[in-house]
Automatic annotation (TrEMBL):
Family classification: Belongs to the glycosyltransferase 47 family.
Presence of keyword Transferase: yes
Membrane topology, record value: Single-pass type II membrane protein
A single BP term in Gene Ontology: glucuronoxylan biosynthetic process
Domain Exostosin GT47 stretches: 44-339
Pfam family, one: Exostosin_GT47
Protein name listed in UniProt: Exostosin GT47 domain-containing protein
Location(s) in or outside the cell: Golgi apparatus membrane
Main location: Golgi
Gene Ontology terms: cellular component: Golgi membrane
Keywords assigned: Glycosyltransferase, Golgi apparatus, Signal-anchor, Transferase, Transmembrane
Length: 411
């Protein structure tokens, strides 16, 4: 556990940060958040996993195994987890939820970026298949079905916000529950009732980079990543809504800020030696840095207006993080140096709680309280289904012919 010790009224000075360590007991996650975090979903729900043709999942992965390590890999590991989970039922008549394993983010460019443009066609094709071969979709038109859609803007399937908003969520998913990384309040790409999950970060790789717990946190603010996405945003005004550019312009020469576009081999080790880790939005509000910061006990500084964070009903984000409005980025140094040491200590104690870290990870094999189980907890809390989700014989709600013309093409 890395903890900060400063005099109460002293602002941090370059080179004099945090050389004194105190051994303190972990802070228990009291109240509803802590109780929810430690819930056990087993016995509270049953999930039926559709056996889809391998072209929707396994063959896509065989074509490009890189999908196993990118930040959207939760869709793959969630499938594998459910196949052997005690909540799985082979009898669909007793299922509370139905799951369709469609790997929508596994079509990668040579540089490893996902191309989601065929994802709506894939999803539509899978829904046509399950609605034609099983009776369960048609009973509710998907209201008791869930899909994992971990792309930048979830089921809007585009990495640029304006275009994602323009295309929206495919009409056939309007009644289903979406398990997705994207979460932003009052946004067309966030469907009511969605379960927001963390992006995938490789647990085993992170574990191999752990450093001794008593190592002092000698870095005040840490960030590695893009400040301008020149390839997709040549003018530099749209990417991250200008927030990352503002970080660079205001703090590139500030000795309290260790920020760079470089991605060193010591990246994980560096985070474990930092007090604050910047987690600004990129193309989407979320970032894998959220996971890395929590796992490595670095207080996440969340710069993404209206963000909906992973498992927000279980993880006390307000207690473990610092929230900075995008328009206030220029005051980051004042904001962070003004936080009282006892407040920082409490956040670090909470971050040191193993259950907090476990909830952000998708380990193989699964472990109690991990992200897989938090998804199941989210699904269990939606039960029992309201009777109104079950349609009358012959009743239809969804419009199968609506949506962009391209989405209607066969896949």
């Amino acid at each position: 556990m890395h903890l900060l010790s400063l005099s109460i009224n002293a602002a941090p000075q370059p080179g004099l940060y945090f050389n004194v360590l105190k051994t303190l007991k972990l802070t228990h996650l009291s109240g509803s958040a802590g109780d929810v975090l430690e819930d056990d979903p087993v016995g509270r729900l049953k999930v039926f996993v559709y056996e889809l043709p391998s072209k929707y999942n396994k063959k896509i992965l065989q074509k490009d195994p890189r999908c196993l390590t990118h930040m959207f890999a939760a869709e793959i590991f969630m499938h594998r987890f459910l196949l052997s989970s005690p909540v799985r039922t082979l009898n669909p008549e007793e299922a509370d939820w139905f799951y369709s394993p469609v790997y929508t983010t596994c079509d990668l460019t040579p540089s490893g970026h996902p191309l989601p443009f065929k994802s709506p066609q894939m999803m539509r094709s899978a829904i046509q298949l399950i609605s034609s071969n099983w009776p369960y979709w048609n009973r509710t038109e998907g209201a008791d079905h869930f899909f994992v859609t971990p792309h930048d803007f979830g089921a809007c399937f585009h990495y640029q916000e304006e275009k994602a908003i323009e295309r929206g969520i495919p009409p056939l998913l309007q009644r289903a529950t979406l398990v997705q990384t994207f979460g932003q309040r009052n946004h067309v790409c966030l469907k009511d009732g969605s379960i927001i999950i963390p992006p995938y970060a490789p647990p085993q790789k992170m574990h191999t980079h752990l450093i001794p717990e008593k190592t002092p946190r000698s870095i005040f603010v840490y960030f590695r990543g893009l400040f301008h996405d020149v390839g997709n945003d040549p003018e530099g005004g749209y990417y991250a809504r200008g927030a990352r550019a503002a970080v660079w312009e205001n703090f590139k020469d500030n000795p309290l800020f260790d920020i760079s576009t470089d991605h060193p081999t010591t990246y994980y080790e560096d985070m474990q030696q930092a007090v604050f880790c910047l987690c600004p939005l990129g193309w989407a509000p979320w970032s894998p840095r959220l996971v890395e910061a929590v796992v490595f006990g670095c207080i996440p500084v969340i710069i993404a207006d209206d963000i909906v964070l992973p498992f927000a009903d279980a993880i006390p984000w307000e207690d473990i993080g610092v929230f900075v409005n995008e328009e206030d980025v220029a005051q980051l140094d004042t904001i962070l140096t003004s936080i009282a040491p006892e407040v920082i200590l409490r956040k670090q104690r909470l971050l040191a709680n193993p259950s907090m870290k476990q909830a952000m990870l998708f380990p193989q094999p699964a472990k109690p309280g991990d992200a897989f189980h938090q998804v199941l907890n989210g699904l269990a809390r939606k039960l029992p289904h309201d009777r109104t989700v079950f349609l009358k014989p012959g009743e239809k709600v969804l419009n199968w012919t609506s949506g962009p013309v391209g989405d209607l093409k066969p896949w």
